[in-house]
Automatic annotation (TrEMBL):
Protein name: FAD-linked oxidase
SUPFAM superfamilies per record: FAD-binding/transporter-associated domain-like, FAD-linked oxidases, C-terminal domain
UniProt keyword list: FAD, Flavoprotein
Provenance organism: Desertifilum tharense IPPAS B-1220
GO molecular function: D-lactate dehydrogenase (cytochrome) activity; D-lactate dehydrogenase (NAD+) activity; FAD binding
Pfam families attached to this UniProt entry: FAD_binding_4
Domain of life from the UniProt record: Bacteria
Domain FAD-binding PCMH-type: 49-221
Keyword set includes Lipoprotein: no
GO BP of this protein: lactate catabolic process
InterPro entries: FAD-bd_PCMH (IPR016166), FAD-bd_PCMH-like_sf (IPR036318), FAD-bd_PCMH_sub2 (IPR016169), FAD-linked_Oxase-like_C (IPR016164), Oxid_FAD_bind_N (IPR006094)
Gene3D superfamilies in UniProt: 3.30.465.10
Length: 453
């Protein structure tokens, strides 16, 4: 049994065996569908630029996915699975060419029930939310790329987002109920993983199975109000954010803090941001707004903007200035900027956060997203960094880690190095079972690269 993917030079017979499944061979389109937003990282750019697939295949249903998997296994062709390509770490960039498996035509929503939905992998999150809201429910969390991201891509490459202040992260038990996976074998199998077994493919970059359907829990669809609160100093905004995160009676979806000068990158928001101020971008339930206003005042802030639930969908969406979109807006102004991802220790006095804010100054501009972790509101940062050299970036990372700050490094395409920094034996064992030839997104899983053959 060979464990080395094959680089085909003549694709005619391969395409013939797909029996009419949609393919794309135009070099410009193939190149476009081989990319994501790895350009956020000046470290990844030289490593991933020019990495493209040979062929894009767009199955329309699970049966076609099974057919594609069988043909790829037969020819030992590497397969890189793609949703909307909104990731930032090169998750869907093919390192060894081969097939780009575009899952965006799998658009079915088999059923919606109170508190849970069954959905195909290619459905966009905004489309899914619109459907579930018809019965008064919504998806629990979403990335800032909510309008374009697919549910399969979010599960395979994401970790949390807007809503994580209430529901934690995707890897937390209960946030993913079931996944349906196609194996990459000459006779592919379709497997249903439920309960804790979903962790075998959760946030695995599509390295160990092709997700075709998912079952995810839903939350109550409150009427949400958006608000901007401005503060005269950053730590006042930070203590406000912690207090709001800890306020059990106030229902919230987003607590996003931005130290000056980050707000200057938000062109559309400038009329609502006093010069030199530090801001909190908030999404809270309509019934909680009065309490949030009182809390803002308590910490010396001022509400400068609100948008009612009735006006949702009109004008800009504050969520699209948070999480990874913060870096996007900053880079639109200055493409030399990059970012970091940090999980701060749960400290009520926010001493470590305050130290890091003052230590680096404007070199590492503080952007904090509060999320729920272990039952507590914890600050997670996506700092905006003035990049100079890779060596200096690594110094900044080391300084954080030496002070107990966990860094999910966004400047690597290796699954484990960018995540929990440890090999997951469960994910490796599952890959060995379902991808015996190592064809799924090769080069991204350290556990597979370093295994004993």
């Amino acid at each position: 049994m060979t464990l080395t993917p094959n680089r085909l030079t003549n694709w005619d017979s391969f395409i013939a065996e797909l029996n009419g499944i949609e393919t794309i061979q135009d070099p410009n389109q193939v190149a476009k569908l081989s990319q994501d937003y790895y350009t956020f990282s000046p470290v990844l750019v030289p490593q991933l630029t020019g990495k493209v697939g040979d062929l894009v295949v767009r199955p329309a249903n699970e049966a076609e996915v099974v057919q594609v998997a069988a043909v790829c296994a037969k020819y030992r062709v590497p397969v890189t699975i793609r949703g909307a390509g909104t990731g930032n770490y090169g998750q869907c960039v093919p390192l060894e060419g081969g097939v780009i498996l575009d899952m965006t035509r799998l658009q079915g929503i088999p059923w919606v029930k109170p508190g849970v939905v069954r959905v195909e992998a290619g459905v966009k999150l905004a489309q899914l939310d619109k459907k579930t809201r018809e019965i008064g429910w919504e998806i629990r969390m979403a990335p800032s790329t909510y309008r374009t991201a697919t549910i399969g891509g979010f599960i395979a490459g994401g970790s949390g987002g807007i809503g994580s202040i209430t529901y934690g992260q995707l890897r937390d038990r209960g946030n993913l109920l079931a996944v349906r996976v196609v194996t990459l074998e000459e006779e592919p199998r379709v497997l249903e993983l439920r309960g804790d077994d979903v962790q075998k493919v959760n946030h695995a970059y599509g390295t160990n199975g092709i997700i075709t359907e998912l079952e995810i829990p839903l939350g109550p669809a409150y009427p949400w109000v958006e608000a901007i609160a401005a503060f005269p100093d950053f730590m006042s905004s930070a203590h406000f954010g912690q207090a709001l995160g800890d306020a059990d009676g106030l229902i919230k979806k987003l607590i996003s803090l931005h130290a000056d000068p980050i707000p200057t990158y938000f062109t559309a928001l400038r009329p609502y941001i006093p010069e030199g101020s530090h801001i909190a971008l908030l999404i809270v339930a309509e019934g909680s707004l009065e309490g949030v206003q009182a809390l803002v005042k308590e910490y010396g802030g001022t509400i400068t903007y609100t948008k009612s639930a009735q006006d949702a969908g009109k004008g800009f969406n504050l969520a699209e200035f948070t999480w990874n979109h913060t870096t996007l807006h900053a880079r639109n102004v200055d493409p030399n900027l990059t970012y970091l991802q940090s999980l701060f220790p749960p400290e009520k006095d926010l001493a470590t956060l305050e130290h890091m804010y003052h230590h680096f100054g404007d070199e590492v501009m503080m952007h904090v997203e509060f999320l729920r972790m272990g039952g507590r509101a914890v600050p997670a940062a996506l700092q905006v960094i003035r990049f100079t050299t890779e060596e200096r970036l690594n110094e900044i990372i080391r300084y954080h880690e030496e002070r107990g700050i966990f860094i999910p490094n966004p400047h690597t395409y290796i699954l484990e190095d960018g995540g929990r920094k440890a090999i997951d034996p469960v994910q490796l064992a599952f890959k060995q079972e379902v991808d015996p030839y190592g064809l799924l997104n090769p080069g991204k899983m350290r556990a597979w690269l370093e295994r004993e053959v």
